[in-house]
Design a protein that fits this description.
By secondary structure, the protein is α+β, with helices and mostly antiparallel strands. It is built from two helices and three strands; from the N terminus they run αββαβ. The longest helix has 20 residues, at 10-29.
């Protein structure tokens, strides 16, 4: 199996993934999918939604073998939460 190499810096990858999610993907999938994972190819904007990160990524890679994947939990700021502190109302 060939190892995929990143084509963007971590910062650029995150910026592209967040931008694609906010502008193109979120309006199509947010309703009814809260808490699920979306895997986005930052090169093409293609995406897959699943209950688990690995499943979403595998589905996307099946269609786009060279995908540069950015994952987001729908309705949340990130995929996983660390710590026990709940997010306060109005906090970014």
């Amino acid at each position: 199996m060939a190892v995929r190499q990143p084509r963007l810096s971590k910062e650029e990858h995150a910026r592209c993934g967040t931008e694609i999610y906010d502008q193109q993907v979120r309006p199509k999938i947010e309703v009814g999918n809260h808490g699920k994972i979306v895997a986005i190819d930052v090169d093409t904007g293609d995406f897959e939604v699943a209950d688990q990160t690995l499943l979403a990524a595998e589905r996307l890679l099946a269609r786009r073998p060279g995908a540069q994947i950015w994952c987001v939990r729908i309705g949340h700021r990130g995929v996983h939460r660390f710590g026990l502190r709940p997010i306060a109302a109005g906090e970014p």
